[in-house]
Design goal:
Blueprint (H helix, E strand, L loop, with lengths): L2 H8 L8 E2 L2 E2 H13 L3 H11 L2 E2 L2 E2 L12 H13 L3 E2 L7 E2 L1 H14 L9 H10 L1 H4 L2 H13 L7 H16 L9 H12 L4 H8 L3
Antiparallel strand pairs: 1-5, 2-6, 3-4
Helix pairs in contact: 1-10, 2-4, 2-9, 2-10, 4-5, 6-8
Length: about 210
């Protein structure tokens, strides 16, 4: 398939110049794919150049990036925590998101449960962690549903992104807002691939505007 056709089909709605703090589901998914599939310094730098995270009025330059991590789960944790605190390119649509202070608090609580500090937790740890997030859901029935889901899940481990996505899903359900997660993961994989191949923000936005 021609690159232009692929871009038209696969581009998603956060390719705008709207800037904001916090994290939404699409940004979390991109970080997960980045670290699991493209965990090399050059690609991580291009990823940050695309999202243009800033501190105050100063753009966050490549030289200020955190150390590159051999363990993708550690990278997911550190990059999500850092990105959530920065003003960056984001989704202009009204989808559910975690605010700056929420990202920091969620990551810090994850850290307290993460026994081996490998930025992964198991089912038992996850269920304990859900209790620490009650104030973000504030619905006993939904908290219990979340716990049942994890208890019945076959996954052996979860990274910070997995936890954040589920928290966003339940909160969107509770508030009757849009979750915003892209269910077709191939679209997210293609987006990160395009970033690694220097497809510009202008080109992706132009193709997306053809919808």
């Amino acid at each position: 398939m021609h690159l232009k056709t692929i871009l038209i089909f696969c581009s998603v709605g956060f390719f705008t110049d709207t800037m904001g703090e916090g994290l939404n589901a699409l940004q979390i998914q991109c970080v997960q794919v980045l670290m699991k599939n493209h965990n090399i310094p050059a690609t991580i730098t291009k990823f940050f150049d695309f999202f243009r995270p800033t501190v105050g009025n100063s753009e966050y330059v490549s030289g200020e990036l955190p150390n590159m991590y051999d363990d993708p789960n550690v990278g997911i944790f550190e990059i999500l925590k850092m990105l959530g605190a920065k003003v960056k390119r984001c989704d202009a649509r009204p989808i559910e998101k975690l605010k700056k202070d929420e990202v920091e608090d969620i990551a810090n609580k994850f850290d307290t449960i993460d026994k081996y500090q490998n930025r992964l937790i198991n089912n038992e740890e996850y269920i304990r962690l859900i209790d620490l997030y009650r104030n973000y859901i504030n619905n006993v029935e939904m908290i219990n549903e979340w716990k049942r889901h994890i208890d019945e899940d076959n996954n052996e481990s979860y990274d910070l992104g997995d936890v954040m996505l589920e928290l966003l899903r339940y909160r969107a359900q509770l508030k009757n807002t849009v979750f915003g997660k892209e269910e077709d993961l191939e679209k997210i994989k293609n987006v990160v691939l395009y970033l690694s191949n220097n497809v510009s923000h202008y080109d992706i936005s132009e193709y997306y505007s053809l919808y």
